[in-house]
Design goal:
The radius of gyration is 27 Å and the shape is rod-shaped. It contains 1 helix and no strands. The longest helix is centred in the middle third of the chain and has 61 residues, at 2-62. The chain starts with a helix and ends with a helix. The protein has one helix spanning 2-62. It is 94% helix and 0% strand. By secondary structure, the protein is an all-alpha fold.
Length: 65
């Protein structure tokens, strides 16, 4: 009986570990997808921020009028 209980506990633990492993792999896939998205979006965003900075600097130099 104790042996069966330990075996059941062992199987339950292994099942949980397998579930965690699957979830970690899914998270890794999601992170790679986000990395791909950011690699496409971030350069354009940075370019737009730089352009906005140049525009605001011009406005400040001209006195805003």
């Amino acid at each position: 009986s104790i042996k069966d209980n330990l075996s059941d506990l062992n199987q339950a633990i292994l099942g949980k570990i397998n579930d965690y492993d699957k979830h970690i792999l899914e998270v890794g896939t999601d992170v790679k997808a986000m990395e791909h998205v950011f690699s496409k979006v971030l350069p354009v965003f940075t370019e737009n921020v730089n352009e906005l900075s140049r525009i605001t600097n011009k406005i400040k130099k001209t006195g805003g009028n």
